[in-house]
Design goal:
By secondary structure, the chain is of the alpha/beta class. The protein has helices at 9-15, 20-31, 52-62, 68-78, 87-101, 164-178, 191-194, 199-215, 232-252, 260-276, 279-286, 373-378, 389-392, 396-409, 411-427, 431-443, 450-457, 479-482, and strands spanning 118-125, 132-133, 136-137, 141-147, 153-158, 184-187, 219-222, 256-257, 301-306, 312-315, 318-321, 330-335, 339-344, 347-353, 364-366.
């Protein structure tokens, strides 16, 4: 065509390397394009011609939510001769029919957001990532907070389910990092937190959530139950955050962490890197936030318990041991997501790891053998049928050693020996080292030798240094008053 601008058809064709006949044909097509081809008609009989209008359409009209696969199954039941390969044709036909004649559908309206107005909270399950802590699989969720305008994020590892305590702790940590609060806070309907609560407890939970938001000057709002897209600005962020955690675990080379503190630091560092990408917008939105109050509000639940004669108490279907000196005392217990803080009156006395009941509904246990070992030494046979015997052993090696002693030496010797071993682990602060020795004995199918263990983990009196203390005369302290040597 370029040569044709300055030459005739024959010369232009020769310069382009074409025959004159081809050149004249292209010239004709350029001046007179061919008419459009008619649409391709059906080349085989319509397999749904006899049933779509007469049977499928009435089904779709009577039950608009019916899935196409269910319609196809019903047609196969009515017409066994229907070819299974027709399923995809039926699905396309139903999709086209619904586009023309189906009911109206919900429309998602995109919103314009302003800085400092809206913060979002939600929980996301992380069990699919297979995170381990000290070799044990960690059953956990992430509390996830996000500012909708700047994209600021905060994630907090939650060990239990979705609860007010987890929401209050995670939200206040997020606001503390920001240094301010948005004017509105939106969460889901808190249906998981309300589960198994009676009407009074639900009302109390709602009142506490409203009080939390009021304390920070935020208007509490909730999206409708089951309508995830109303919280879509954080629902979609869940997937991005979870993918980022998965990638970071792969780069790390292992999903096993030495402690929960190390895993929480890992999550905090990852979220911090994600926030640095939006640092300019976060700083701009931070200036629009409401100043924080002087103090945090309560991010725990409080209850009163009485320590039983067994030196235990029960909270939320979990049994806890405490030192026996607290028997009969009424304690005030603050329940956090990952711990319990115990108070005698207003005096803090103890902090315990928070336990969870079993998934089968059975009672959970948080047992510390140090709380009861002195009593077990006086009554070692109580160990044999102790309700929480399996949970008493701090490590598997102790439990396996007890089982081997039961099998070979009988209940009396087994109880006495293992109680003395536990007492030695407590008194000499050698629980891990002693467990390693027991593991070696078990590997060699050897019974524990109590005398050898005492000799190994007790100090040798001959090796102890002799310490001589020389008392200073009291008159030597006069120099502290006069500033001069006496």
């Amino acid at each position: 065509m370029r040569y044709r601008e300055n030459h005739g058809v024959a010369v232009a064709s020769a310069k382009a390397g074409l025959s004159p006949a081809t050149g004249y044909r292209l010239e004709k097509e350029r001046s007179a394009p061919p008419p459009p081809k008619p649409p391709r008609g059906r080349r085989r009989p319509d397999p749904l011609a006899d049933i779509f209008d007469s049977e499928v359409v009435p089904l779709l009209q009577s039950a608009p939510g019916l899935r196409a696969v269910a319609v196809f199954a019903e047609m196969q039941r009515r017409h066994p001769e229907l070819d299974p390969g027709v399923r995809r044709t039926l699905e396309r036909r139903i999709q086209a029919w619904r586009a023309l004649h189906g009911p109206e559908r919900d429309v998602i309206f995109r919103q314009v957001h302003e800085p400092g107005v809206l913060g979002l909270s939600d929980f996301t399950d992380m069990n699919e990532l297979g995170v381990l802590v000290a070799g044990e699989r960690l059953d956990h969720r992430l509390y996830h907070f996000r500012l909708i305008w700047s994209g600021f994020e905060h994630a907090h590892v939650v060990l239990g389910g979705e609860s007010y305590v987890a929401l209050a702790e995670g939200l206040q940590n997020a606001l503390g990092l920001l240094g301010g609060a948005p004017r509105e806070h939106r969460s889901d309907s808190l249906s998981a937190a309300f589960r198994n609560l009676d009407a009074d407890a639900r009302t109390d939970l709602t009142r506490r959530y409203d009080a939390l938001c009021t304390h920070y000057g935020m208007t509490p709002t909730r999206n409708n139950r089951g309508v995830a897209h109303e919280n879509g600005s954080i629902e979609s962020a869940h997937g991005h955050l979870k993918s980022a955690v998965r990638d970071a675990l792969l780069l790390r080379g292992t999903a096993d962490f030495a402690s929960l503190v190390e895993y929480r630091s890992f999550i905090s560092e990852l979220v911090g890197r994600r926030n640095r990408r939006h640092a300019a917008r976060i700083d701009a939105e931070r200036a629009k936030l409401t100043p924080l109050p002087a103090v945090r509000t309560a991010d725990y639940e409080e209850t009163i318990v009485t320590v039983s004669s067994s030196s235990v108490f029960s909270v939320r279907k979990v049994l806890y041991t405490v030192p026996s000196r607290l028997k009969g005392q009424r304690l005030r217990v603050r329940l956090y997501d990952d711990r319990l803080e115990l108070f005698l009156g207003s005096t803090p006395i103890l902090q315990l790891r928070r336990g969870r009941p079993g998934k089968d509904g059975k009672r959970g246990h948080v047992i510390d053998y140090r709380h009861v070992i002195h009593s077990l030494r006086r009554k070692p046979m109580a160990l044999l049928n102790l309700v929480y015997r399996d949970q008493l052993f701090p490590r598997d090696a102790y439990r396996e050693a007890f089982d081997l002693l039961l099998e070979r030496a009988g209940p009396k010797i087994a109880c006495r020996t293992i109680v003395e071993i536990l007492s030695l682990a407590h008194e000499r602060a050698c629980e891990a080292e002693l467990a390693a020795v027991l593991a070696d004995d078990l590997a060699a199918s050897r019974l524990p030798d109590l005398d050898a263990l005492r000799q190994r983990f007790s100090p040798d009196p001959a090796a102890l240094p002799e310490v001589v203390v020389h008392l200073v005369p009291l008159t030597d302290y006069d120099v502290l008053i006069t500033g001069e040597a006496a």
